[in-house]
Amino acid sequence: ASSVSGLARPTVDALRAKILHHLEYTLAKDAGHSSRYDWRMATSFAIRDEMLKPWFAATRQTYDTGAKRVYYLSMEFLIGRLLEDAMINLGLHETIAAALAAEGQTLSDIIEDEPDAALGNGGLGRLAACFLESMATVGVPAHGYGIRYEHGLFRQRFEGGQQVETPEDWLSQPHPWEFARPEAAYIVGFKGHSELRRGKSVWVPGETVKASAYDTPVVGWQGKWASTLRLWAGLPTTQFDLERFNNGDYTAAAAPEALARTLSRVLYPDDTTPAGKELRLKQEYFMTSAALQDILRRYQSQFSTLADLPKHVAIQLNDTHPAIAGPELMRLLMDQHDMGWDEAQTVARATLGYTNHTLLPEALERWSTYLMGSVLPRHMEIIQRIDEDHAKAHKRPPSVGIVQHNEVKMGDLAFIMSHKVNGVSALHSELVKETVFHDLHKLHPDRITNETNGVTPRRWMRLSNPALSTLLDETIGEGWTRDLDHLKTLEPFAQDAAFREKFAAAKRANKVALAGWVQDTMGIDINPDAMFDIQIKRLHEYKRQLLNCFETIALWHNMRQTPDAGWTPRVKFFGGKSAPGYFVAKEIIHLINDVARTINADPVTGHLLKVVYPPNYNVSMAQRLIPAADLSEQISTAGKEASGTGNMKLTLNGALTIGTLDGANVEIRDLVGADNFFLFGLTADGVEKRRKNINHAREAIEDSQNLRDVLQMIVEGRFSPEEPDRYHGLVDRAWHHDHYLVAADFDSYWEAQRAADALYRTPQDWNRKAILNVARSGFFSSDRTIRGYMADIWDVPSALKD
Ligand SMILES: CCc1ccc([C@H](C)CC(=O)N[C@@H]2O[C@H](CO)[C@@H](O)[C@H](O)[C@H]2O)cc1
């Protein structure tokens, strides 16, 4: 296989010299007086130097060949740490470890010292990060465009069991993986008005900022190719106002700077309900406009005819957050490049693709026409006219329309301005056709397609789970890292007792490591032979952490009554942040922590059940928890989780799933086999039907002794003796406003959990099923997902010749 760089790997001594070089010449530190930070930075710069080769080569080849480019526009990139990922993809992990050891440094300590780049909320942001790495591995000439937030997703800590947020400040230390690109800067306007000049609309912005670029290379597996993540920072367009400063009006003097920086100051921490704030709309336009200006500048440096843009450029919108791209691309083509209306619309539509990641009505962005009209007056004009064109071209039912009830529906705008729209799992894409875009689907029956999500096996297996990865390499060779379908060859080993032993040993080693970390960081003693039952994801009612919490209480209650009944010991892990303003989710966090405090202090069940909720769940913590999981909790109300990606990561790391027929759970179960999956609960259709019975919760509770006991204990303050009525609201909602059918699914969930208990007591059967889960989940590689986008949406070939 030819790699663009095709260069030999540096030796231990060469890398050791490089690290010492950077320590001395880049950090101006002498090895004897260097902190862990210094060693991390020097090591990062040494690795970064190795990333430049494939990066330059990929960039050069793309220019030389005039290859079609892919641009991924996203308000979020949940990257995590980069040092170890870069080492793994460059095949330098052992080499660096040896080089550092020779200098008395421990690689794992240096890796731990790196802050997560938490530039995202959850699934959508992490998917974007996995896609960048997969595009670099598959060989797609790709750029990601986003915002260089000074503050990523908030830090979570618990005070009295309640979530408290503090600002995240990953940039308080220099970030070694970015290159400032001050030459790549664009003016972005806001407000003002648009006027007709010689029959042409011209926008006169009321305020402007400068978007300045920072580039981070993302190398693929074996350093054969690389993609670029370009993040924009806000800078003032006006000079520092010295005169005002000299007149002592310091704040006014600094105002332009402050205003500009607010655009890239902080990530909005909502992952379902749009904040609907003006600053958020400005952030979305800021990122999108800078990206499109940069894309057209690069395009025109290679090609002359803008009408051919769709032949050479594919732009993917990561949800509606960059949906202003439709009107903005048309504005640039018309107002700055004199293209006609119809041609500009056709060119834009042929270039754009839109991915929908949620069906939750409250998550669909709608901007008031007033706000859109005041912040982006020219775009409001263009949106109106796009809507009129669409109305003229299609006999539309009243429900269809971008502008309705004084709101701009960004979903409809993205749909109408894209040549392809996709959902993120087979079930979700069908539900998108039947619900959120039902009428538009009728008008454009071939526009919606499906691209089931995936995850990168480099970070989520080879990096996170070296124990399993080494076992796979020894058993089926290491080809799986580039082509995850190779896992299929593992299938026969499920029947091999010796292999099952080794597989179980790898899992147990990860569980022992996690138990040590839980002891060190939380002082909780957990048994590594207990079943590690893990639910890690953002806190949201539809994800039903509450159902898991209710089952935990019921299990504890039953264990207490018959502690010697041969219960399967369990450790329940929870991990996840709630949006700061999401009161109900924060109450669920409080209850889980109150339940954990009570159960973990109970001597009767101490050896049978523990509940662990480490604060500040993030990418790096996921990498620590997932390899140690036995049971993966994917228990959302059917029809609500668009796909899920944690479910894929846990399956690929040998966990069995307990889940509903929702999102990608459906495809996981189809591939791993129904008898290797703990299914429970209503289907998406079943949910709609059951909801029609307004007493569905009360009836279910009255039918379930277990659930009634649980609610009784909670309402009595069993878990909040210091405030017995703390959860009266929560219990009332469980009886009367159980929108996500926690009660209706409780008993079947309980049964499924007991089935998991029983299987866990027969390790041979458990491990055989776990091995089959790994062997049959190669489909969930984000490389396969990217190849789907390349074929179905972007029409882009790989730049790598195999
Ligand atoms: C504007 C507020 C906001 C911010 C983010 C979002 C995202 C769409 C929420 C999200 O992360 N969705 C998740 O996307 C994953 C990747 O496709 C899916 O696997 C998850 O099922 C979906 O919830 C919605 C609304």
Automatic annotation (TrEMBL):
Protein name per Swiss-Prot or TrEMBL: Alpha-1,4 glucan phosphorylase
* Main EC class the enzyme belongs to: transferase
Instruction: Write out the function statement from the record.
Output: Phosphorylase is an important allosteric enzyme in carbohydrate metabolism. Enzymes from different sources differ in their regulatory mechanisms and in their natural substrates. However, all known phosphorylases share catalytic and structural properties. Allosteric enzyme that catalyzes the rate-limiting step in glycogen catabolism, the phosphorolytic cleavage of glycogen to produce glucose-1-phosphate, and plays a central role in maintaining cellular and organismal glucose homeostasis.
In which organism is this protein found? Aquimixticola soesokkakensis
PROSITE patterns the record matches:
PHOSPHORYLASE (PS00102)
Q: Which PANTHER family match?
A: GLYCOGEN PHOSPHORYLASE, GLYCOGEN PHOSPHORYLASE, LIVER FORM
Q: Which InterPro entries match?
A: Glycg_phsphrylas, Glyco_trans_35, Pyridoxal_P_attach_site
Q: Which reaction does it catalyse?
A: [(1->4)-alpha-D-glucosyl](n) + phosphate = [(1->4)-alpha-D-glucosyl](n-1) + alpha-D-glucose 1-phosphate
Cofactors (names):
pyridoxal 5'-phosphate
Instruction: Please tell me one Gene Ontology term that the record gives under cellular component.
Output: cytoplasm
